């Protein structure tokens, strides 16, 4: 009997050896959001993703599609971060920069609203389609579990310890081991606990040879001159109004540890049947809005909500409301502790922001110091019954614009944004203005002033270095950080957009899989292979990718006539506009079709002054040519974008370069543009 048992044991060992030591995929028990209750403690996965932001969702989906066992852990109870947290008026910069699964997400949103792609949406719709990725990959989020420590062996994270976010108790802590970790939170808590270097606040301009970092007293979102900052006007001894700091204005470009303002991106509705009235919040203090009352009195001509808020309309009578001008939704100067605060302190800061924001809305609707026109306008809006139903119709996601920023293998700076320094290891692009919200409200020359707002753009899409997603190798070798990535304050202000985070998360997840397969550190993977994978398989599904032909693609674009290049406002680095001559002109886009079949063709039209009312196109598909006309009135541009894709139609295209789309200036009565053409293969 003993011999038989021994033989059986040896057979088991041999089977394990022959299996290549592959660890079985850990099955994570399903959990209901907000409960934090797990049926069993997991032990080991290949990829652990911390933070179910939009970036975390895309990273988890990608890693699973790459064949890896995955766990997605969310310290709160909300899925999707800011993308489903109220930021429906998507910050794009330039659609050319949004690739892969990130672009696919906005295509799915478009399908929901009956369009090709859409960048404005309701919070619940965003959440639905982020959940769709997880459902397709069979991923269950572990909610309400937050990291409290990380265990390392040398430079490698071996495991992390989680506590229940709702009821911390050492007896219920969970330990998670993985081969590679991704920190996809806005705060960088896993990164910090892993001992990775990071920055908080603003660098001095001199640190990285920049010009718009550090202290900046600019005109944007500024208080007008002449507003007294003191409780009793003209009497400094009476003390400062709420929200005004006694700090002195430091010289321009001075670094500090202060953080740009946070706020809520507010979803309201004007539909009475879907409305919850805005009432006085608990803790409401009208004294918090004395400075606002003085601002309103200073500018009596401003009597519209858009004078005090960026009031962006979303589908189905809803909004995405953001900060505007001198006093608005930004709670300036009240978040400095947040990045490094413990969980209890952060919760208090979040609650203070909620009380402030709800109080602001109530103030505009009810305070007698507000003009009646403004009060009446505000009272037409309320909280939507069908949004955030688990959290009292209020977003559970504070807009943490910036917290910790990793100091990694490479630091993205102003020079990268402006194209003065171009990296070769780009695994994503950014294109948004270098943007910082105000950081402090202080007294300057006896007047209340905001400081820290910066909005400097005018540059095209630029690559983001893979090295900015990984720590220094001496600090950690199995961690990627696509959200709190390595960038200066002002460069981060351009990069920190939700679509870009999703792009970088996909790249990071593929890199994680490559590191596991090659048994290398995340710093030592072959970035050229990562770049090739992103290009060849952008949706991580093996299907034929769409073909983009941009006007700057000299190999696939031919130009006839007097066309001029415009460097701002198009799709990608530039677009062409017809300069006008009696002979006319044309631009022909010739794709290299990899597989014959049906393709949907789209042409991109940027917004221009005095556009032609009708533009002539011709589509060649093999030996056949079809002539078409595009009416300017049919090109509808919505959201923060320079233009829109126009659907030309479905065409059967042969393999090779026997197909083309030509844009002609013949007979045009206004400006004709030629920018980009997209060929999207039909899914069979």
Molecular structure report:
- Strands 1, 2, 3, 4, 5, 6 and 21 form a 7-stranded mixed β-sheet that branches. Strands 23-26-31-28-29 form a 5-stranded antiparallel β-sheet, with no helix packed on it.
- The radius of gyration is 27 Å and the shape is globular.
- It is built from 12 helices and 33 strands.
- With 684 residues, the chain is α+β, with helices and mostly antiparallel strands.
- Among the domains are: 248 residues, FAD/NAD(P)-binding domain (3-Layer(bba) Sandwich), CATH 3.50.50.60; 135 residues, Galactose-binding domain-like (Jelly Rolls).
- Helix content is 21%, strand content 25%.
- The protein starts with a helix and ends with a strand.
- 48% of the residues are buried.
- This is FAD-dependent oxidoreductase.
- InterPro entries: CBD-like_Golvesin-Xly (IPR033803), FAD/NAD-bd_sf (IPR036188), HdrA-like (IPR039650).
- Keywords: 4Fe-4S, Iron, Iron-sulfur, Metal-binding, Oxidoreductase.
């Amino acid at each position: 009997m003993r011999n038989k048992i021994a033989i059986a044991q040896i057979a088991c060992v041999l089977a394990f050896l022959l299996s290549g030591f592959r660890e079985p995929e850990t099955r994570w028990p399903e959990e209901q959001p907000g409960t934090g209750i797990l049926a069993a403690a997991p032990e080991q996965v290949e990829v652990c993703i911390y933070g179910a932001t939009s970036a975390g969702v895309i990273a988890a989906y990608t890693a699973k599609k790459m064949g890896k066992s995955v766990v997605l852990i969310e310290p709160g109870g909300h899925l999707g971060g800011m993308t489903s947290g109220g930021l429906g008026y998507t910050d794009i910069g330039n659609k050319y920069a949004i690739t892969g699964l990130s672009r696919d997400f906005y295509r799915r949103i478009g399908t929901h609203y009956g369009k090709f792609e859409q960048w404005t949406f309701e919070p619940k719709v965003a959440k639905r389609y982020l959940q769709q990725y997880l459902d397709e990959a069979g991923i269950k989020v572990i909610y309400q579990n937050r990291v409290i420590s990380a265990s390392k062996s040398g430079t490698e994270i071996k495991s992390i310890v989680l506590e229940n976010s709702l009821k911390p108790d050492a007896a219920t802590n969970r330990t998670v081991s993985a081969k590679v970790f991704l920190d996809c939170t806005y705060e960088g808590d896993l990164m910090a606990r892993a001992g990775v270097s990071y920055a908080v606040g603003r660098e001095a301009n001199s640190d990285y040879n920049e010009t718009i970092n550090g202290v900046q007293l600019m005109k944007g979102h500024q208080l007008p001159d002449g507003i007294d900052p003191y409780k009793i006007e003209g009497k400094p001894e009476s003390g400062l109004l709420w929200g005004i700091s006694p700090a002195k204005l430091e010289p321009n470009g001075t670094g500090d540890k202060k953080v740009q303002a946070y706020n809520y991106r507010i979803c309201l509705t004007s539909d009475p049947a879907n409305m919850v009235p805005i009432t006085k919040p608990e803790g409401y203090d009208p004294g918090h809005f004395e400075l606002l009352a003085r601002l309103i009195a200073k500018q009596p001509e401003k009597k519209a909500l858009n004078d005090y808020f960026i009031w962006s309309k979303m589908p189905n009578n809803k909004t995405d409301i953001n900060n505007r001008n001198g006093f608005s939704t930004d709670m300036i100067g009240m978040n400095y502790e947040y990045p490094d605060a413990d969980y209890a302190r952060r919760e208090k800061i979040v609650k203070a922001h909620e009380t402030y924001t709800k109080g602001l809305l109530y103030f505009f609707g009810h305070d007698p110091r507000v003009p009646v026109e403004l009060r009446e306008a505000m009272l037409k809006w309320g909280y939507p019954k069908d949004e955030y139903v688990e959290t009292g119709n209020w977003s559970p996601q504070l807009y943490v614009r910036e917290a910790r920023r990793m100091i990694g293998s490479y630091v993205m700076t102003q020079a990268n944004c402006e194209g003065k320094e171009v990296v070769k290891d780009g695994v994503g692009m950014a294109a948004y203005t270098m943007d910082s919200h105000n950081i402090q409200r202080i007294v300057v020359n006896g007047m209340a002033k905001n400081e820290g707002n910066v909005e400097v753009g005018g540059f095209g899409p630029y690559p983001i270095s893979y090295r900015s997603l990984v720590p220094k190798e001496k600090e950690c070798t199995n961690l990627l950080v696509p959200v709190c990535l390595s960038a200066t304050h002002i460069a981060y202000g351009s990069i920190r957009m939700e679509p870009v985070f999703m792009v970088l998360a996909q790249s990071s997840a593929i890199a994680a899989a490559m590191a596991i397969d090659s048994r290398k550190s995340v710093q030592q993977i072959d970035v050229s292979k990562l770049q090739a994978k992103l290009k060849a398989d952008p949706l991580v599904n093996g299907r034929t990718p769409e073909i983009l032909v941009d006007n700057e693609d000299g190999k696939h674009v031919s130009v006839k006539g007097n066309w001029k290049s415009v460097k701002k406002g198009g799709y990608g680095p530039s677009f062409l506009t017809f300069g006008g001559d009696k002979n006319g002109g044309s631009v022909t886009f010739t794709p290299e079709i990899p597989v014959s079949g049906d393709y949907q063709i789209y042409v991109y039209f940027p917004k221009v002054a005095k556009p032609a009312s009708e533009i002539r196109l011709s589509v060649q598909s093999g030996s056949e040519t079809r002539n078409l006309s595009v009416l300017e009135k049919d090109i509808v541009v919505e959201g923060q974008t320079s233009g829109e894709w126009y659907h030309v139609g479905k065409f059967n295209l042969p393999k090779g370069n026997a197909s083309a789309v030509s844009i002609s200036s013949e007979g045009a009565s206004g400006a004709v543009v030629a920018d980009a053409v997209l060929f999207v293969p039909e899914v069979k």
